[in-house]
Amino acid sequence: MGRDNHPRDRQRAKIERKQGHRAPGRRFLIVCEGKKTEPYYLEELRTALRLPTANLHILHEGVTEPRQILEAALDVFLEGKGDLRKKAADVLIAVFDRDEHRTYHEALALARELDARGMKNDEKKPVRVFAVPSNSCFELWLLLHWKDVQTPVHRHDAFVQVRQNLSDYEKGCRGVFAQTVPLLPEAAKRAFRLESCCDPLDGPWTSVPTLLQFLLDADLEFPAASAELRGQLDKLPELEVRLSMLFPKQTP
């Protein structure tokens, strides 16, 4: 995922690499816990934002423990994979849930450790490493499209509540982004409010809209030192305006 599949697109990418050209903007390497749910959502988001596929590689590496996901992201960065060359990324992202994972806390600590290493990419520039956790689960982010959540919610309860608003929702289904996009600005506002009063260890928490903020704004500065990707609350009004312009609410 995260790369063009048409032969013409692959040929163009190959030529651009040989010529030393690449699309402008930050290059994100994102490794997800889910095999389908998060990758499908992020791919649909990438398409909607018209981001170059070369700048957003989205993978699932067959591991589900948070620490393993971070380690897999590091391995892909260092060794390359498929069309992704070695060290051809500016930002490494691990997307995972709290759930009942044993290594959730370890993963947050490892993200901070890897980020502090000051690794360099293929352009000899510093590489940032962040976790994008959801506590308790990715469905919390979806649930915020319809309601405020101020207290921790179990993943099963979050799933049930999402189904109450999106009756055909299932893990690994496609089209979730398109069905929820009219509510995206309000969901982002609710998630950012959680950042101001909660933390990723205890929840409720989701960094998914923060990832969206950085994908939208290439000039936005990353946090100086943070295990999880944190947004800039003072930029929230700008994000809301931009989301509303990109995805206006449809009137009946």
Question: Would you mind describing this structure in some detail?
Answer:
With 252 residues, this protein is α/β, with parallel strands linked by helices. The chain is 43% helix and 10% strand. The protein is built from 10 helices and 5 strands, in the order αβαβαβαβααααβαα. The model has no long low-confidence stretch (mean pLDDT 88).
Compact overview of the structure:
The protein is α/β, with parallel strands linked by helices. 43% of the residues lie in helices and 10% in strands. The mean pLDDT is 88.
Q: What is the H-and-E element order?
A: HEHEHEHEHHHHEHH
Structural Rg: 17 Å
Number of domains: 1
**Biggest sheet strand line-up:** 2-1-3-4-5
**Spans of 5+ residues with little confidence (pLDDT < 50)?**
none
- Characterize the main sheet: 5 strands, mixed
Q: In terms of structural class, how would the helical and strand content be classed?
A: alpha/beta
Residue fraction in strands: 5-15%
Mean pLDDT: 88
Helix count equals: 10
- Approximate shape: globular
Number of strands: 5
Termini, distance in Å?
35 Å
Residues in helix, %: 40-55%
